[in-house]
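Re: the request from the purification team.
They wanted to know what the chain is likely to look like in 3D before they choose a buffer screen. I agreed to run a prediction and write the result into the notebook, where they can find it.
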Amino acid sequence: MPNKEPMGKYGIHSYKGPASERYQYDTPFEKCHGTSRWVDTPVNSTIYSADFIEGAQNHTKIEAALTGHDWYENKDYETSANVGYIKFKDTLAEAVYRFFSENYFTDYGNFASTCHDPSAAKDKPEDFLSLEGVHNNVHNWIGGEGINLDTGAHIDGHMTEPPISAFDPIFWLHHCNIDRYFAIWQELNENSWFDQTEDKDQMGTWSIAKNSIDSPAVELRPFNMLNTAPYTSSSARNFYSLGYSYPECQPWLDKYISDKKYDKTMYTNDVEQQLSKLYFTSTSADLYLGNEGLRDGRDYFDDYIVNVVYDRFELDGLPFCIHILLKPAENVSLVNQHMDPDHVGIVYNFSTPTPRTGDVTCTNCNRQRDAKALSTGQVPITSALIYRVKNKEINLPSMKEEDVEPWLKDNLHWRVTLKGREIPLDEMKSLTVGVAVGQAHHAKDQRSNFGHYTYLTNATDGKNRGMESKDGSL
């Protein structure tokens, strides 16, 4: 901050839940004059470390968090004849790659948002992945989440908290990359967009009138076009018209000219090849597994995903993590658990406590809270399972459903944490976890195709917050 002025001077206040709530904690960000990542927060309201006040960035832990989930192709293979497995997890890159696979999502809404509508349940398991979900996880990995067992402090950072994340400069780089994902997705799904909803914002906002119906035509004030008219979602849909693009989105290049005309097929095929080369995915893992991953003459590989449903305001609106594990939670340390090889992914609930009354409030947030609005998340686990098939010391004979389902029944677990503190699953009344198997079709330098998923309820039935055999869908 200028002249080391505290953020409280500019309207930032303590991140504190209402006194009546169950899971309150007090993080006095108004005292800070620098932004932090993975820093110990004050143990109480009177002891502030210099790191917390001045701002500190633990880049080692940030790197560990991102490496533990891997952005790009990781070619660090074990070469031992007795092992021969892929060394690191790739849940982040795998999720990103699936954004762009062919027909992974039913529609734009499922691609864009974690929102789960119980009246129109997501019968297609693929739809539990979303751009918003990946966005949320990166906020967590950069800001930090955990506990310092030496000091008793919980680990936090500006990026982890919605009200103040934009104070960290990396926020803007992160959101540029999210916009890049969206731009690429638009290039591959140009006819997919959102429609007018039936929901009315009864109270309105600073920029949206009361009782407005959300639609692509809603004015996005205070952002105006050069002619001073406010932008709408529709007017901003064509990002080229805004004067920018991304390396993967350059259809004007000469290499896409055929017979003196622009060849759209050449362009989209090239975009697909760039994505296949850039992101490490189960495509590479399956091809590395080779014929061991196929059976009965099929032309597809078995693909496994873990889906979760939860109420984003379950813990009074505080952000929490759902961790997917391949061993019992008590055997995975709460410290740096994302680096444990049996910790295969997270779903981060990127939310904030919302006051029910007062002059400053979020009507939409309060409405979602009162309605117990549900959200979704997805963790692909195919590469993690392939790792275990190739590791002869782990008793998973193959990727066949008849082998994987009983193995997951014994080994699939989950936990929920709030600022490094484990929350009993009995308190997560809205949480349901399910695992599904589908078909993955891969071809070199082309988009993969995933589909035909069914839930393996035997893998979760009988577990606390697990999907039961009687359930048809999440």
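For the purification team: The first strand starts at residue 15 and ends at 16.
Please add any questions underneath this entry.
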